[in-house]
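Thread amino acids onto this structure.
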């Protein structure tokens, strides 16, 4: 979700610039999003919270959500909806994993 905060909350709403990923280049064959260990948790949460802060600041610079971000050319509203969808998808994945572990759901 750190990357999604960067893409749809920071880069997309900021001035036109090349997108720089948080965790690497994501070149074909690289698996940056899967190779996390328990030792990476603190750093991961720190990076995620940092990107949330940057995204909140970027969103706050726009008084009207129909304005277009310079990064990807979509409206602020579109980017926020996309970000909400990403959270919903990933939370759904976590719920499936939890249900497989203990039979409980996140309702």
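Threaded sequence (107 positions):
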């Amino acid at each position: 979700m750190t990357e999604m905060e960067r893409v749809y909350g920071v880069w997309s709403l900021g001035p036109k610039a090349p997108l720089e990923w948080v965790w690497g280049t994501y070149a074909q064959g690289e698996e940056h999003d899967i190779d996390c260990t328990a030792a990476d948790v603190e750093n991961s949460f720190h990076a995620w919270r940092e990107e949330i802060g940057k995204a909140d600041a970027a969103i706050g610079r726009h008084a009207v959500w129909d304005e277009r971000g310079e990064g990807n050319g979509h409206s602020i509203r579109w980017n926020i909806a996309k970000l909400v969808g990403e959270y919903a998808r990933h939370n759904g994945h976590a719920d499936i994993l939890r249900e497989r572990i203990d039979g409980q759901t996140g309702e």
